[in-house]
Design a protein that fits this description.
This protein has 406 residues and is mainly beta. The protein folds into 2 domains: 244 residues, outer membrane lipoprotein receptor (LolB), chain A (Clam), CATH 2.50.20; 150 residues, Regulatory factor, effector binding domain (Multidrug-efflux Transporter 1 Regulator Bmrr, Chain A, Alpha-Beta Barrel). The two termini are 22 Å apart. The N terminus is likely disordered.
Length: 406
């Protein structure tokens, strides 16, 4: 579904107290002076085609585990259209792109989305940060110098929220933090934590922290200028077809999307527990499964999750575990299970786990009001590690419910 007012990734434009820049004051702005050397590089303007390898890691408060390897392509056409496409095998794909008419994204937990008008701004800002585009005024109205935590760089707050760190010697955008918001969805903070550039100004290495995932991109081939050709950057027909199947609704109380998911391998333990003891049970099950996975040399491809097969008076039949690219060898009470393919309705719960039941009730109500019925056991995906984010008000849990027409 193409959206203009309620995108998955809608950046909040917060009025800052920084420098409002006019055309006559451009040369005097400190961010212009900081970025001036990068404007002289070959990669500052014009077509660019880059390709290389990508590695995905699963970040927790205790470690960063490699979970997938794949490829990355980075393209910019003659009109300024940009696309970053990362293919990660069983983990899926991550893509951000924008042309003159729209922007689009593909994320493992959210699927494909197309944005138009002002809704496209956050994706354009993210792409500018990834490629190191020095033309910051195309994306922000304000920029304020701020303290830099690293020697040899200057830091700026843009649009009141986002941050760019610019190297003092070469004027390159070496780090950035982009905030992406949406009504009814959790805030996504994307941090570009390391960037290396070639002499031509094109990026050679990029590290991106996206929720629980860390992506390291190694660019091994770069083509610039006329050698790139005239092919425009655009979303594929398959992406547009997938995005058109996404529906979003909600009145501010809950925002729901329906989409089609594929079968996923699932290392799990199934158990009937009292509601008051679910947290304790999960605290035992998740480490037990992780230990078994490590012994078999298997890494999860996503966040821990719990499936609810039955709700009863005071207790629930739960199945908790991790999604996998290949099945685990069963050991003890740990089973090689699957999460089913088919149509699902998904929404987000932002806050402590104790109030998850309220969001489940709202999701069930939305399903019934939209000509659908439950079609199997729902599950929760825990995208926040309390060790990384101690504030329960910011914990992000995705609710997924299989559905079918009534």
């Amino acid at each position: 579904m193409i959206r203009t007012a309620t995108p998955i990734l809608l950046a909040a434009l917060v009025a800052g107290s920084g420098h409002l820049v006019s055309a006559t004051a451009q040369e005097s702005h400190p961010l212009d002076r900081a970025l001036a050397p990068s404007l002289e590089t070959k990669a500052a303007k014009g077509p660019l085609a880059a390709a290389g390898t990508a590695t995905a890691f699963w970040r927790t408060s205790e470690q960063c585990l490699p979970i997938a390897k794949g490829t990355v392509t980075l393209d910019r056409d003659r009109t300024g259209g940009i696309a970053v496409r990362i293919a990660l095998g069983a983990l899926g794909r991550i893509e951000y792109g924008a042309d003159a008419a729209r922007a689009w994204s593909v994320e493992p937990e959210r699927g494909a989305t197309v944005f138009t008008g002002d809704a496209a701004r956050p994706v354009r800002r993210l792409l500018a940060a990834i490629v190191g585009d020095p033309q910051w005024r195309a994306h922000y109205a304000t920029a304020t110098a701020t303290d830099s935590p690293a020697a040899g760089s200057a830091a700026f707050t843009l649009g009141g929220r986002d941050r760019w760190d610019v190297s003092s010697d070469a004027g390159r955008l070496v780090a950035a933090t982009i905030h992406l918001d949406s009504r009814g969805q959790p805030t996504t903070t994307i941090a570009i934590t390391r960037r290396d550039f070639g002499d031509d100004g094109a990026p050679r290495a990029i590290t991106i922290d996206l929720n629980h995932h860390r992506l390291t991109l190694a660019i091994t081939r770069v083509t610039l200028g006329d050698a790139v050709g005239d092919k425009p950057v655009a979303p594929t027909k398959a992406l547009l077809a997938e995005a058109e199947t996404i529906e979003e609704s909600g009145d501010g109380a809950i925002a729901v999307k329906t989409r089609t998911v594929a079968t996923v391998h699932f290392a799990s333990v199934r158990k009937t527990v009292k509601f008051a003891e679910i947290s304790k049970a999960l605290g035992e099950i998740f480490p037990e499964i992780m230990f078994a996975l490590q012994k078999q040399g298997i890494q999860p491809i996503g966040a821990p999750m719990t499936r609810y097969h039955r709700w009863g008076p005071g207790e629930a039949d739960i199945e908790a575990g991790f999604p996998l690219a290949k099945p685990i060898e069963p050991v003890g009470r740990i089973a090689a299970s699957t999460l089913p393919a088919g149509r699902v309705a998904t929404t987000w719960h932002i806050g402590p786990y104790q109030t998850l039941g309220q969001t489940h009730q709202k999701l069930r109500g939305w399903i019934g009001e939209h000509g659908l019925r439950p079609n199997g056991a729902p599950w929760e995906i825990y995208w926040t590690d309390p060790g990384l984010e101690p504030d329960p008000r910011k914990w992000r849990t995705q609710l997924v419910a299989p559905v079918a027409p009534k």
